Amino acid sequence: PAAIVVISAHWEETKPALTASNSTHLLYDYSGFPAESYQLTYPAQGASQLATNIAEKLTEAGFTPQLDKDRGLDHGVFVPLLMLRPAADIPVLQISLLKGLDPAQHIALGEALAFLRRQNVWIIGSGMSFHNMQAFFRPDLVSKTQVDEFNQYLIQSLSPERDYPEQAEKLKRWLDAPYARLMHPREEHLLPLHVCFGAAKGSSAELLFHDDVLNKAVLAFGWF
Are 205 and 137 in a shared domain? Predict the structure, then answer.
């Protein structure tokens, strides 16, 4: 790809913000982990011109984007990229979520990014289909059946049997899913899915991953 754009669950701003420097550094935005986790490196270049281009498209779509030349890449960016592209040889740009956590706004944000697909730019939503931190440490708090029912809502929402407006409505109404708030006490880890869905408007989702992480079944979708 020409560049990689990541929407991470770990950056929220009132207005959509974009990293806008041609160099990058890492934010070790976690605590209590082994020393090795603070020595990780991912020396990818930034993409300031691409950030400017994206900001123009976001403005056309009614957003008021802000370019951030100082912010580093958080672990929602560099951890998956260390596995996906360990060579760090592709420019990387990060886009924030919106603090209001409105699902419709995040779908619209994705729709404004759709042009990137025609420019051979990867768009990655870095979040998690299950994110209840207490439940990771208390297995009895959330049952496998409850997780499976929520996951089925997501899978069925993105079914190719539904057209785009129907899919969008299901994602906007994700709180209608079984045990939604138990899966996501706060939805910042779900909303990268909404952004990618909007960016892929008109394409069919593929279920790329459905397996246990920390004893909880999680999903990953892709659009190609």
Answer: yes
pLDDT tens for 134-180 read 999 998 999 999 999 999 999 999 999 999 999 999 999 999 999 99
Alpha helices in the chain (DSSP H): 48-60, 75-84, 103-112, 133-137, 144-157, 164-172, 180-183, 191-199
Please report, for residues 59, 122, 139, the alpha-carbon distance to residue 142 in angstroms, rounded to integers and kept in the order given: 41, 34, 6
Task: Among 78, 93, 126, identify where a domain stops.
Answer: 126
Residue tagged 């109404």 (tokens) = 173
Domain boundary among 126, 151, 173: 126
Calpha distance 185→156 (Å, rounded): 22
Q: What is the pLDDT of residue 183?
A: 98
Query: Is the whole model's pTM more than 0.85, yes or no?
Result: yes
Same domain, 22 and 97: yes
Count how many Cα atoms sit within 13 Å of the Cα of residue 46 in the half-sphere of its side chain: 22
Identify the three-state secondary structure at position 221: strand
Helix, strand or coil for residue 112?
helix
- Into how many domains does the chain fold? 2
